[in-house]
Amino acid sequence: MHIVIMGCGRVGSALAQTLEQQGHTVAVVDQDPTAFRRLGASFGGRRVTGVGFDQDTLREAGIEDAGAFAAVSSGDNSNII
To answer: Domain 2-80 has what CATH class?
Structure first.
């Protein structure tokens, strides 16, 4: 299953790594490109820099093929959207 994760903090990066290890394809979206360092060099998923509720950003992350979306950014208002 393809999964899109919004937020690459401690929770988002750990979730992305776990899901990828379980055989899922994963795309992580974050506004801060330096946040992707938390994923480590072995992460094979997509890293998408942008706003996690922007339609173009979500399309770039493969939302149209996703079976799940996790909103785990540090902003509650963004997560609700």
So the answer is: alpha beta
